[in-house]
Design brief:
27 strands, 6-stranded parallel beta sheet, alpha+beta
Amino acid sequence: YTKLTSIGAFRKESMVGHYNEQRFDGKPNGGFYTQDDIKEIVAYAKEKHITVVPEIEMPGHATAALAAYPEFSCTGGPFEVGTKWGVLDDVFCPNENTLNFLKAVLDEVIPLFPSEYIHIGGDECPKTRWHQCVKCQTLIKEKRLKDEHELQSYFVTQIEKHINKKGKKIIGWDEILEGGLAPNAAVMSWRGTEGGIAAAKAKHFVVMSPGSHCYFDHYQGEQKTEPLAIGGYTPLETVYDFNPIPTELSAEESNYILGAQGNVWTEYMEDFAKVEYMSMPRMAALAEVLWGKDTSSNYTDFKNRLLLHFSLLDKMNVNYSKALFEVKAKISASDDHLLKVELAAANPTSSIFYTLDNTNPNNTSLLYRQPIIIEKNTTLKAASFDSNTQKSAVLEQKFEIHLATAATVSLKDEPSNSYKANGAFSLVDGMYGDRGKFGRDWLGFSGKDVMATINLGSVKKVQSITVDVLSSPASWIYYPKHITISYSENGFDYSAESTISVKEIESSKGVVKIEIPTTSIRYIKVNAYNQGKILEGNPGAGEPAWLFIDEIKVDCLLYTSPSPRDRQKSRMPSSA
């Protein structure tokens, strides 16, 4: 199948910038490994006690192969090698001809890799073409399959039988669970840990790889100073906090957890230096997690050892991330219901200097000694210094104060571990998520509605309520179907719901505001309803849509933050 290298190995151009920008460089790009290249890689890895597991992706993510051999698709093409990443509707048609093609490819690949496992992908395979394909529908009837998910399971099972005959085992992403898992397959669980738990309970081996802890293409530090990434926020501490063996498993079931895997997806990594930056030192944290943390070990101990280890990485010229040195800010509510900011440096002997006037800090700025109270609209900038030398990038955070700032918030359902920011408090912390770098300030809900209740602490005169939501279909993030807002003075008798349609949300570009008559309000309910399953023809079709939400701003017409004394005067008993 020589067209795989003559056609499928080359694209006419590559995407640059963020996916939402849809910009391309106009430069042809491509290449392929020869058998000798593979042999060299495998031999080198063996010297380093590393096993290389090849992934031959099927039945989705196959556009390059279909550009070379369109006859293995449902429509017959024509296709071109993809110039942008994502989930595309054109996938392998799971008939006998395609199976024979893939078996031939595997027959060439398997002898090159001494690994026990062959990875067959199985992830993100839209069923759009299969729904419409006469060949697929005929096969479903002939094999008495329930639906297209069982068709994928049938397809994977046929591939597994072939690989097993060659003395190998298959492993695939957790979508191969859908429609029934092939008899001897192992699972790589990336969409959370649920897939891995289900596989282990069914006595299948598992590699844990959830996006919440193991995706090293996420941001790891202050987004304003970090290079462009796909989104998300997975700092070093989050990786170190990972437990690859879910507590839901019994001791016997836990034996089916082989370990975990850190993923370095390179859509936004233009060279190896960027790969190093995104993977180190998070790789070190995951390695220690998987080799087994001592029960007495904790993140502070690991961090202190890592600071010493950086000198070795410097000698090795590793382009590791310096995000660990950044000043970390913990935002919470003070006793006076104002914002309290606690700062911490990686090295406890470092000094932190900060400013509140939007200027960059230096060693003559305000010295951090105790939590900072934010009483008005402010831009905080902070950096750590050792011996008067700046050690970190500048932490910059803008705060916008409103009536709900630092209020009490409850959520019916918790956000995803991948996008949990500062929990429910993120909705009233005075910080607004970056719409270009949707990472740590956004709360993300996969397939779930957002139902938030805010307690302002006392009765306030309110004239407007604003809700921030996000849309980025390429990343499976969609505006809510609609948003409802209601309010109450006593927590029992709520106003009629104000409903904002998706068209209104779209026209406001995700900043939804309702004006209300000046009303005495203490409690506010904001419900944002998830789109549910992503519709066919869109990236991630059939998967749960993400709903991203951030600040819920509550204002009167002219609002200035009251002093702590005024706030004390305005408090009312909880029974009010």
